Amino acid sequence: MRYDRLGNTDLGVPALILGCGNFGGIGSTPELFGHGDDENAAFALLDHALTLGVTMFDTANSYGGGRSEEWLGRWIADRGVRDETILTTKVGNPVGPRREDSGLSRRHIHQQIDASLRRLRTDRIDLYLTHAPDPATPIEETASAFDELIQAGKILHYGLSNVSADDIEKTAAAAGHLGTAQPANLQCGYNLLDRTAATDVFDACSRHDIGLTAYSPLAGGWLTGKYRADRPFPEGSRMTLRPDWYGHLANDATFEILENLTATAAERGLSLATMALAWALTDPAVTAVVIGPRSPEQLTAMCAALDVPLTAPERAVITRTAAGGTG
């Protein structure tokens, strides 16, 4: 496993981060709570991750209605591995029906960090992230709240997710004006079928020495080859459970690109999934990649991408192919 420094911190993070959004549900969607992986499957995956050097675990207060944090905390306590692991969780998505049950207000952040610490059975979070922007709360209030948590020792660093370059600039400026801690991390979607981050947030992260962790590197399974133009979507797949997230990809143009990418991977003796992961991992702007395997076997297969040192020219060819070019 490779490790790299996260942004402006001294935190060394593994190149692959285990996403725990499938524990006890499928992300933050209430109607899917109780779906996803059960606790035994989650423990087996976490055990295997640790043997492979995947020591950073990404969750959120809203995943599985709190089950993801609860199970992760129970596993850490049971295995006695808190000091061997890096925990990141999030705040901001709804955790109840009321307006005050979401957002990035000082009150909500202080309330939710305590709830997350209880569920995770720990006294500190290594990296605490906003889950989504909150236009109703001033950025200064949010930045101050995170700094208060750092001063209290409840979190070591904070970061942002699913925000624009403008949001990054405003947060950095607010923290500078207030004299509070700067954000250390941006988590955003980035893969061969969605390269928006490269033109939106990469430069802002570089300017402010903010580490970038990319989630959905396989585009919800689209870059594994599981979705075919002539076949129904597999039972239990993201396209059957959450078609709103990736439904826009279900068209002839995408299937043609996938066919070309599969051929490009085969020329290198790789599977489509391994090449897609390697493409994200070898991007100089990416600190680490958040993956969401559903089994130990899938996790082992994903780790194979660490041994694929794509050069800049090779990455350029793959990128052109993903853009609909001929390579």
From TrEMBL:
Residues 35-316 form the NADP-dependent oxidoreductase domain. InterPro entries: AKR_Detox_Biosynth, NAD(P)_OxRdtase_dom_sf, NADP_OxRdtase_dom. It holds the Pfam family Aldo_ket_red. It comes from the Bacteria. PANTHER family: NADH-SPECIFIC METHYLGLYOXAL REDUCTASE-RELATED, OXIDOREDUCTASE YDHF. This is Aryl-alcohol dehydrogenase-like predicted oxidoreductase. It comes from Streptosporangium lutulentum.
